[in-house]
UniProtKB/TrEMBL annotation:
<dbReference type="GO" id="GO:0005524">
    <property type="term" value="F:ATP binding"/>
</dbReference>
<comment type="subunit">
    <text>Forms a stable energy-coupling factor (ECF) transporter complex composed of 2 membrane-embedded substrate-binding proteins (S component), 2 ATP-binding proteins (A component) and 2 transmembrane proteins (T component).</text>
</comment>
<dbReference type="InterPro" id="IPR030946">
    <property type="entry name" value="EcfA2"/>
</dbReference>
<keyword id="KW-1278">Translocase</keyword>
<keyword id="KW-1003">Cell membrane</keyword>
<dbReference type="GO" id="GO:0016887">
    <property type="term" value="F:ATP hydrolysis activity"/>
</dbReference>
<comment type="similarity">
    <text>Belongs to the ABC transporter superfamily. Energy-coupling factor EcfA family.</text>
</comment>
<dbReference type="GO" id="GO:0043190">
    <property type="term" value="C:ATP-binding cassette (ABC) transporter complex"/>
</dbReference>
<dbReference type="InterPro" id="IPR050095">
    <property type="entry name" value="ECF_ABC_transporter_ATP-bd"/>
</dbReference>
<comment type="function">
    <text>Probably part of an ABC transporter complex. Responsible for energy coupling to the transport system.</text>
</comment>
<comment type="function">
    <text>ATP-binding (A) component of a common energy-coupling factor (ECF) ABC-transporter complex.</text>
</comment>
<dbReference type="GO" id="GO:0042626">
    <property type="term" value="F:ATPase-coupled transmembrane transporter activity"/>
</dbReference>
<protein>
    <recommendedName>
        <fullName>Energy-coupling factor transporter ATP-binding protein EcfA2</fullName>
        <ecNumber>7.-.-.-</ecNumber>
    </recommendedName>
</protein>
<dbReference type="InterPro" id="IPR015856">
    <property type="entry name" value="ABC_transpr_CbiO/EcfA_su"/>
</dbReference>
<keyword id="KW-0547">Nucleotide-binding</keyword>
<dbReference type="InterPro" id="IPR027417">
    <property type="entry name" value="P-loop_NTPase"/>
</dbReference>
<keyword id="KW-0067">ATP-binding</keyword>
Length: 286
């Protein structure tokens, strides 16, 4: 499912002394099946932008199209759009509220009016995808660890079978193992089910490792929109925006500055390893 944003501007508290233009003339298109990373300094407009993707916010100016259809058009039901474009907020576990994990995950499918057996199969499938077993079905979400709660919250969105999954900092506050597991599960969803994924993250490592395309927001504008290898070449400009690049990209830059012939377009540990082995294979001493 594709999303197209045309000349989108959004102003908070318009016409009051607190007026704030959070997005200014944003145009972009995300195609079916893409895995896109959205990065930007705090306050650059990422959260405001993603809430336009599923119609939670209405543009002050401009249009949002999902699968070619203007979502604020007369005949469009926004509840349908929100099922197709699933949004997992930051710290989504704060929104868990049912007595049991099973009930919490079934909330969305029940609201969609699905019958009991369809709800049941969706809940089980969603919990399976996020790596939670039957043992947790009847537990209170509040008995679970932080990482497990996060998984329950993500399962609640997956149970609606969205075509597009938007995740705002899904690994914030998790330990390294929990982070990797959740990101691997998201990657699997993308690779195996062909879901379009939009990942908001402050971790350049995660972004460099998983996404095919990076959109960089800066003060309500799109500053870059390109493949990670291209975007991470703009080290100085990203740093000026309060961002950075993956550690291995810094390492490659340093080696290049010292006269070694390595590719500056390295963004993952695996690529850095291969590049260094290639260099050592040529008999270069570090
Ligand atoms: N409810 C609001 N009322 C007024 N201004 C707001 C509101 N929410 C956000 N803003 C402002 O809009 C701008 C964009 O904020 P937004 O939350 O979209 O940024 P962000 O990139 O998602 O930040 P973060 O990384 O901290 O989540 C900021 O200047 C912010 O202060």
């Amino acid at each position: 499912m594709s999303i197209k944003i045309e000349n989108l501007s959004y102003v908070y508290s318009e016409g009051t002394p607190f007026e704030k233009k959070a997005l200014d003339g944003v145009t972009l298109e995300i195609d079916n099946g893409e895995f896109v990373g959205l990065i930007g300094h705090t306050g650059s407009g990422k959260s405001t932008l993603i809430q336009h993707f599923n119609g939670l916010f209405k543009p002050s100016e401009g249009n949002v199209y999902v699968q070619g259809e203007d979502i604020h058009g007369e005949d469009v039901k926004l509840s349908d759009i929100r099922q197709k474009v699933g949004l997992v907020f930051q710290y989504p576990e704060h929104q868990l509220f049912e007595m049991t994990v099973y009930k919490d995950v079934s909330f969305g499918p029940v609201n969609m009016g699905l019958n009991a057996s369809e709800v049941d199969s969706r809940v089980k499938e969603a919990l399976h995808i996020v790596g939670l077993s039957e043992e947790v079905y009847e537990k209170s979400p509040f008995e679970l660890s932080g990482g497990q709660k996060r998984r329950v919250a993500i399962a609640g969105v997956l149970a609606m079978k969205p075509d597009v999954l938007i995740l705002d900092e899904p690994t914030a506050g998790l330990d390294p193992r929990g982070r990797d597991e959740i990101l691997e599960e998201i990657k699997k969803l993308h690779d195996e089910l062909g879901i379009t994924v939009i990942l908001v993250s402050h971790s350049m490592e995660d972004i460099g490792k998983y996404v095919d395309r990076i959109i960089v927001m800066d003060r309500g504008h799109i500053k870059y929109d390109d493949a990670p290898k291209k975007v991470f070449q703009h080290i100085e400009s990203l740093e000026k925006m309060g961002l950075g690049v993956p550690q291995v990209t810094y390492l490659m830059r340093e080696l290049t500055d010292k006269g070694y012939h390595v590719s500056p377009e390295v963004t993952t540990i695996k690529e850095a390893y291969d590049e260094l082995m290639k260099m050592l294979g040529k008999g270069v001493n570090l």
